[in-house]
Amino acid sequence: MTPEPLCALVALIGGYLLGSVPVAVLVGRNHGFDPRETGDRNPGFWNVMRCLGWRAAVPVFAGDTLKGVLAGGLALAVSGAHTTGNGVVTGGSVVPVYLAVAAAMAGHAWPVFAGFRGGRSVLTFVGGVAVLCPPAFLLGVVALVLTALPARSFAVGARVGVFCLPLFQVFFTPLWQVAATGALMCLIGLRFGQAARSSQARRAADGT
What we know:
The protein is mostly helical. It has one domain. Helix 4 packs antiparallel against helix 5, helix 5 packs antiparallel against helix 6 and helix 7 runs antiparallel to helix 8. It is built from nine helices and no strands.
């Protein structure tokens, strides 16, 4: 097991660098466009899907989710891989994994490899939860499916699944860890707020 200060450093640096991989930008470049300059200008799954369709957006979905999984997995490995019988991160691994997931989300939002112009970190967060609390992640997938099918909308199901993750986590972790997951979600809220302000500024500029 890596000493605690070094473990935290590895989690932060490794998580940020993994999160900084601009999957949507790379996929968009392969198709001749930059998602940061097209559609809603968010370099993420939804914008690529709207611009190029589902098939082209699948690698973005997988890649952005994998960033959270890999960041959490890296921190779990260097911290001694402390988990419960159902895979929930526990003990000395909790703080490093949360740090790594937070850093990966920050990397996705402000990527060093893409001019610090990133996305909203939703899928990276989801990938991180898959490491932090696998049962809550699986229940989130179930909630997504059960909502998306009757609503005939993957977007609606995805929103329900993501917002329910902390609620499902209550059954498997202490409340302070649930609160930590809620804190991670605040970064998503911050990014949505920034995107809304940018959109308003562009509309105002177009109207002048």
